[in-house]
Amino acid sequence: MKTKVGIIGAGPSGLTLALLLQQKGIQSVIIENRSREYVENRVRAGLLEHNTVEVFDGLQVSERLHKEGLVHHGCYINYNGVSQRIDFEKYTQKQVTIYGQQEVVKDLINACEARQIPIIFEAEAKEIRNVESENPEIHFTHLGEEKVIYCDFVGGCDGFHGLARKTLPKNSYNEYKIEYPFSWLGILAYSVPTYDELIYAYHSNGFALASLRSEKVSRLYLQVDNNDNVENWSDEKIWNELELRLGITLDKGEVFEKSITPMRSFMIDNMQFGRLFLAGDSAHIVPPTGAKGLNLAVADIHNLAQGLIEFYESGSQENLENYSKKCVARVWRVQDFSNFMTYLCHKQAAEGSFESLLQKSKFDYLTISEAYQKTIAENYVGFPLDTFA
Ligand code: RFL
Ligand code: PHB
To answer: Which of 214, 204, 277 lies closest to 241 in space, CA to CA?
Structure first.
């Protein structure tokens, strides 16, 4: 099989890349080791920056997003019952849109199908070869057979556990990470949200987040210990703890999804080697407190598509050569913001300790300072795509 760009992974990164290339007549093939049903139903992110929506608008894949997505103009940060609203509209004139990642993925896969972009599901990349030459190869297995994609470039869009990062020579990058001593228990429930905007809440029992997916479905999270287990959390216990930490009454509907996710910050400081380019979770993970993972993936892809389009249109490799540098500058900004939100909102130290009093002082500052609120607002809605060019 021969194509221009061989893409590994049909998550938001890989799908968006294929569609941006197709718009300019550049052929690609996506291989994805899971089934279509699996990737379309994987529950993950839910908050899209204005930038991300703009990229989807440009691809004409956002019709359902605009119909079903919920536009939010602010959010709340609470500290032991005291609430501070962050006004995105006032400080940035921008909004965010609540729309589930699995809906994004469905829309992108449908568009790929309609535009005849091949996606091979249940096809696992096993080896990426010759990335230092002009003819890289992706070796993969599909239906028990070994196959090869011969291409000009490889898009490593295969997530945190993928093959692309492992293919980079060890001495071509530095790795940075923090593993936090807490996780998130997340639920989806048929429950009418009793709040109009997201609530990030610090409570002495731990962090809680109230988000949503629609007017009838709530998405809620609780800080739990890393060694905790969903079996320890009955629906009743979850609802009671959420009400306590959020300080509001909730509609305690049927819980239909429950899972625990560890919290980590991770990145490498070089996202390319030869003709292999990494994007999205394959190169970085941010703790979800800043709602940035998917948005950062789309920002990487914007840069990568720009570089590849320039190469095919003019032969210039300038943008491709600067790809990693451009992405990493944004990644650091987003790492900082995600880490800041995580430390601001989670229970980390005993009440009354120096660390917890500093944390309280940060929150108190937030309630008196418009400058601090604006800083949070501009990071939360996201810097425009070419800010870090
Ligand atoms: P993905 O989505 O992991 O897709 C990678 C794909 O590659 C496939 N793959 C392979 N295919 C073939 N051969 C191989 N060898 C392969 N190895 C892997 C995988 O099956 C998969 O389909 O990465 P991508 O595209 O970079 O997208 C990243 C986002 O999915 C991720 O950053 C977000 O979900 C993070 N995230 C959030 N991001 C936001 O922007 N806003 C949020 O509100 C938000 N909330 C969240 C989140 C992530 C969470 N979890 C579960 C990690 C909330 C949670 C709880
Ligand atoms: C979500 O709706 O899943 C969500 C929203 C905001 C976050 C994290 C997750 O910070």
So the answer is: 204
